[in-house]
Structure formats: C-alpha cells, structure tokens
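**User:**
Make up any protein.

**Assistant:**
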Amino acid sequence: MSGLPILSILIFLPLAGCLLLLPVWGRPALSRPVALGIAGIELILTLWLYASWQSLAALPARLPGFLLMEDAPWIPAFGIRYTLGLDGISLLMVMLTAFLFCVALVVSWNAITDRAGLFLALMLIMESGIMGVFLSLDLALFYLFWEVMLIPMFFLIGVWGHGRKIYSTIKFFLFTMFGSLLMLLAIVALHLIHARQSGVATFGLNELLGTQIAPGTQLWLFGAFLLAFAIKFPLFPLHTWLPDAHTDAPTAGSVILAGLLLKTGSYGLIRFGYPLFPQAAQTLTPLLYSLAVIGIIYASLVAFAQEDMKRLIAYSSIGHMGFVAIGIAAWQPVALSGAVIQMANHGVTTGALFCLVGMLDERAHTREIRAFGGLWGKIPRYSFFFLIFSLATLGLPGLNNFVGEFLVLAGTMRKAPLVAALAFVGIVLTLIYTVRLVQEVLFQKERQPLPLADLDLRELVLLSVLALLALWMGIHPAPLLELIHLPVQLLTGGAP
C-alpha cells in the first residue's frame, strides 16, 4: 500500500462511491449498504494509517512532522498546486471523519426514506470535502474543499430537516458564506504579498509561512481568517446559526455538523491562522480568550433554559468548543494538545448524544424534555447509554471529555490563570444543566404514557462502539497524545 496515493484515495473514494450509487439509486435497501461500505473502507484506510504511523514517521519527510505528502502542479499559471499532507493532527481528524460518517449513515438507516439515494450521495460528497479540508496544504485547495463540504449540508438541512428548515438553511448559508468570502480575500492578498516579495506565485502553506507582512496588514488578514473560522467554531457572538441548524437538521446532519464541521474551524485556526500570522494572533489572543470564556458561560446558562433536547445539546457544543478555542489561544504545548484531543472527544460524545436524541424522536415524535420521565425503568438499555454520554459531556474522570478539558485548563493556567479559572465556572454550569437533563428524562416520574421500544440490535451495536471509544479515550489517551505530540511541539516551537 506504500506506493498508493493514499491521501488522494481518502478524498476521492467517497466521490467515486457516488457513481456506485447510481445503479441502486431508487432502492434504499441496496443503496444504504453501498454507501456504508464506502464509508467503511474509508475508516479501514484511516485505521491502517494509524496502525502504521510510527513506521511512517521514521521515513524522510519533505516537511518536518508530516507522515505522508502528495504534491503535483495543478494550475501553474497562478502557482496553485495539489499539495496534501498528513501529520498526527490531521490523522486524528481524518480518523474522526471516517468514523463519524459511518455513525451518521447507521443512525439514519431507517430515518431517511424519502430520496434516500440523493441523501447518501450528498453524505459521501460531504465526506470528500471534509477529508480535503483536513489534508490540504495549499490554501487555494483548502478553500475549494472548504466550500465543497458546505454545499451538501445546505441541502441536508433544507430537504430532510424539520421545523423552520428553510430559515435555518438560509441562516447557515449566509453566516458561512460571509466568513468564507472574507477568508478568500485574505488568501488572495497573502498570495499577492508573497509574490511581490519573492517573485514566486504560490498558495503553498510552507512557502507562505516565510512571508514578511506589516503588523497592520497582518492584523487585517488574520482577522479575516479568524472571522471565517470563528463562525464555524462557533464563537460568541457568531454562534446564533448553530442552534437553529441543529434543531432543524436531520439526526445524521447534526452528527456531522457538531462532530466535524465545527472542527474544521478549529483545525483551520491551528493549521493556517496562527502559523501564518503569529504576531497578529498574539495581539488578538486576549480577544479570543474573552470570546471563548463568554461563550462557555453564556452557552451553559442558555442550555439550562432549553426545553428541546437537541437545542440543549447544540448550546452545550458552543460551550465545549469554547475550551478548544482557549487551548488554541494559549498556543502552548499542553493546552494545544488538550484542544486537539477535545476536538476528537467532542465529536464522539456530542455525536452520540445527537444519535440518542434522534432515536428518541423517532419513537416519541417529540424532543421536549418535559414530555419524558421515568425512562430508566421503561427503556433501560437506552437510558444506560444516555447516562454514560451525559456523564462524558460533563467531564467525568475516566471518560473522554475530562482529558481534553483538563489539559486545556492545565496548560492555560500557566499563561492565563484568570481565563482558566473562568473556564472552570463553565464546567460547573455544564454539570448543572446536564444533571437537570438526566434527572428529568431518566429519573423523574413519567409525565405521560409514551409507547417506547428499547434499543434494537443496530442501535445497541452503534452506541456500544461509541461508549467503548469514549471509555478508551478517557482511560488511555496516551496513544492519541503521542500521535499529536510532534506536530504540536513544532507548531508551538516547544514553548514551555
């Protein structure tokens, strides 16, 4: 397999899978296994890369810290190249991507019956786009995949969503496109500045890292990148599109939206924003700290007031991603490691919670917290997993979220003790609204008789895999921390 362009295969295999769907387009019983098979092959490839990463790290690399690279001319007249690279951080993200798409396809197995072929094709196209975002090392190529991944989500919410789906779709589109266009202008400006200095036209990340930019100009360019990535995080006050999108999206859309699309913003800041504009990033670090802390506390307070379970989990996502933002802003090895691990942890935990809410909605046709009660005695298998992932999201030691939050706070405490202390308040608030959710849904007296069936075999296997992964990441995070250690050290310069 070493001679294969494995990174290109990861990106384009899902697109090729769309062609395999054409003969079975109108037959969901056949098209679902085909789509899941393609996603499963993607997952196997990423797991093979993970199993081989130490031997890949021993090979000479064109860029320090990268395990694999692919590079070829694409549009030479403009200096655009097809450059892909895989280091420990991007490997963790592509594994998360492949895994969560399998989860999303399994959880939507019976939920999507209308135009299932189109739904599955859009899911595979989105997987290609997200893989491209995590693997691109050319800014023009990165921007292309950044846009590609948004188009399928637009249709997933607009066609298969619920409630005010058109309103939520348009809001999602306007927010994301506004930030994307500003980032495009900044990319072009950076390209022109570098070409004027060196006489070489390029969009390559490695070449652009050496560009000398005046402090004022650097602030404007970094501000454009930061705005685009902050919308995707989302950071306060740019978060308002997220609760609406989650509330009205189908379950599979919510899993991908929370588990992966939000991570493209944090990944972009780590891969491009801070390395390209280090002085501007340092100048705006207090702003990023402030927005992250406000977002954590605000989202936690608003989550406590929610009656719709999906909307509550959406606000909890804003709070959890605030910890990722703090870890990035600290730009220190321990905190940044915590931020990267928290990106993966949040994808698993929140993805599982959206699956659980979707399963309950399929049975009861409501997500209102006050419609439930007494589920522990009524559907015990479901309740067990609901409790496990609720404990994970509040940061219980031994489960995955604890590791990321602890590392973020430990690293940030060295550089900004007040920020770490305020962020800890968010953990306390998370405990409060999560306990309220568990109490009312699982242990409160049943409010109305609902004919609820417990988990079937498909759902039981899916949630068991997610729970075992959350437990493994919480008890034994060392393999993942070792995977990202070198790229984090190289990004931060090994700062203590």
